[in-house]
C-alpha cells in the first residue's frame, strides 16, 4: 500500500486480536509501530511479532480511559519515534450483558469510559501531533454494533454508536489539515473477545455468524487490512466513513 512505509503508527489495544493484527500489518507495510495496551506484557509480545515480520516496533503501556495515561503515551511515542502519522484507536471491552433495566451504572460507565472516552482522549492528543506532520490518518474501531441495535448489550452498542458520531465530527474538523478520520465496523471477528462469548463452543460460533452473509467469522488480519488501507494514500478521498468489514452483516 502507498504512503505507509517510513511512517509512525500508534495502535491501542495492540496486545490482542484486531489490534495485534493491525500492528503486524502496519509493520509488514513498512511503518514503525507503537503497540500500546493496558496489558504491557501483551503489547511487548505484539512488538516482538512486528519485529519478527520485519518491522520496527516498541511496546507502551496505556489505559485509554485515563487522560494522563493517554497524554503520556502520545508524548512517549513522539519522543521515541520523532512524530506521529497514523493512529488506530482500537482498545475496547464488551462489558456485561443484560437488558437496559438490569444494567448497572458501574458497567455502563466502564464500557463508555474505555470504548468511547478512550477514542475521544486518543484523538484529542493524537490530532495536534499528526497535524505537526502536515497530515495523516486516524482509524477508530467501532463495530456493526455502531450501526444497528440489538438486545442485551446496550452499553457496548451505545459506545460504538458514539464512536461513529465522534469519527464523523472529527473528520469534519480536521479535513483541511490533511488528516482523514474513519472508523472500521467489524462484524464477528475470531479474537479473544468473541472467544469469551462462545467459550470455544462451535455451535455458539455458528449462531453468532449466522446473520453474516459469509457465515464465518473474520480473521483479525481481514480487519487489519482495512485499517491499513484507510491510512494509506490509496484511500486519499475517504473520510468520515464508518466502514463495515462484516462479511455482509449490515447488507441484509
Ligand atoms: P480483545 O479483547 O482480543 O483485545 C482488546 C485489547 O484491548 C486487549 O489487549 C486489552 O488488554 C485491551 N484493552 C482493554 N481495555 C483497555 C484499556 N482501558 N486501555 C488499553 N487497552 C485496553 O478484543 P478484539 O476483539 O481484538 O477487539 C478490539 C476492538 O474491536 C474493540 O474495540 C472491540 O469492541 C472491537 N470489535 C471487535 C469485534 C469482534 O468480533 N472481535 C467486532 C467488532 C468490534
UniProtKB/TrEMBL annotation:
Q: Which UniProt keywords apply?
A: Oxidoreductase
Full protein name: SDR family oxidoreductase
Gene3D superfamilies cross-referenced by the UniProt entry: NAD(P)-binding Rossmann-like Domain
- Family membership, please give it: Belongs to the short-chain dehydrogenases/reductases (SDR) family.
Coiled-coil regions, chain positions: none
The source's superkingdom equals: Archaea
